[in-house]
Amino acid sequence: MDKKFNYKKKFGQNFIYDINFLNSLLDSFKLEYDSVIVEIGAGLGTLTSALASRYKQVLSYEIDKDLIEPLNSLKNVYSNLEFVFKDILKENVKDIEARLNNEEYYVIANLPYYITSPIIFKFLLESSFLKKMFVMVQLEVGERFSASPHSKEYGASTVILNSLADCKIVKLVKRNMFTPMPKVDSCVLEITINKRKFNLEEGSSFIDFVQNSFKMKRKTLYNNLISAGFNKEVVINTIVSLGLDLKVRPEELEVKDFVKLYNLLK
């Protein structure tokens, strides 16, 4: 693998070349040999090779078309490997799943900061056969997604993600593992899809509700809901019926509390 590659900042390219580290990481995921993998961000193929040598099928997405030639050479080694050189955010998840014959699959990705949330939520909301996502993200992003109530990291994205999945940090990754070295440390998130966790029937409207609840961070939940257009008396009665104080702030509520509040107010 060529470490003299012209890394592109616009694609957030930071690669890991240490194959021993990558193999130990994959060991920790405890996936079976017959697993189907969607990789997001093939880079120069170090992780891709490790995936293809371990699992039944690997469908790998890469946005940088300058990498077509070196990556396609890997198909001469691994017959279970397929590349798609497109922006995955512009792909339909149902089409991706159709390529996999609608089999259950896992997403494994090293995501740059600017597309972390869009990609995670795209698969979370649109997938039908996804079991888990293992995503390497900036540490602060991982801490936000896996945060607990009453913490400064806890926010709308925490609630939305954890209403449809179970999320935890499974490994810390120091910045010096990457080339070029970023300015911050990273972590690996394990996101286990569980869309029936709260039996939310209208995911998009729940997302709007949560975002409105956190719209003004320093305001109370009551004030945010009134600002979002809910009836004052109904909001008061609903908050009180849940045993909550009218001065409660959104970051003090657990995910289940938001679901109860949403179901009563919708």
Instruction: Outline the biggest β-sheet.
Output: 7 strands, mixed
Mean of all residue-level pLDDT scores: 91
Strand arrangement across the biggest beta sheet: 4-3-2-5-6-9-7
Classify the secondary structure makeup into a structural class. alpha/beta
- Unreliable spans: 7-12
> What radius of gyration results from the CA coordinates?
21 Å
Structure explained in plain terms:
- The chain is α/β, with parallel strands linked by helices and 266 residues long.
- 37% of the residues lie in helices and 19% in strands.
- It is built from 11 helices and 9 strands.
- It has helices spanning 19-29, 46-54, 68-72, 93-99, 116-126, 139-145, 156-164, 203-213, 221-227, 232-241, 255-265; strands spanning 15-16, 36-40, 57-61, 81-84, 105-110, 130-138, 165-173, 178-179, 186-193.
- A 7-stranded mixed beta sheet has the order 4-3-2-5-6-9-7, with helices on both faces. A two-stranded antiparallel ribbon has the order 1-8.
- β2, α2 and β3 form a beta-alpha-beta unit.
- α7 packs antiparallel against α8 (203-213) and α7 (156-164) packs across α11 (255-265).
- The chain starts with 14 loop residues before the first strand and ends with a helix.
- Mean pLDDT is 91; it is low at 7-12.
